[in-house]
Write a structure and sequence with these properties.
Helix content is 75%, strand content 0%. α1 packs antiparallel against α2. The chain is mainly α and 89 residues long.
Length: 89
């Protein structure tokens, strides 16, 4: 399934934020920062990645539904979408 960067701009923003946060976490570890602070930031990175993934899946679901409504073959089957969704959990 082709991804439209314009439609997924929210996911891209989340991924860029997670990228920056991950760099900060790596720096914190390298500098021997407090364990609680490191884990708090790592959890934030994980949530940002999850949200971006779910945004991508939901966009795919909408694209598939729109294709069905137009009488076209959707780019992914329901089974493929479910497998991708479950990969995020």
């Amino acid at each position: 399934m082709e991804m439209d960067a314009k439609v997924l701009s929210d996911a891209v923003t989340r991924l860029k934020r997670a990228h920056g946060q991950l760099g900060a976490v790596i720096g914190m570890i390298e500098n021997g920062d407090d364990c609680e602070r490191v884990l708090t930031q790592l959890a934030a990175v994980s949530r940002a990645l999850d949200k971006a993934g779910f945004k991508i899946i939901s966009t795919g679901m909408r694209q598939c539904q729109a294709a069905r409504e137009r009488g076209e073959q959707p780019p992914l089957t329901e089974e493929q979408l479910e497998k991708l969704f479950m990969a995020l959990s």
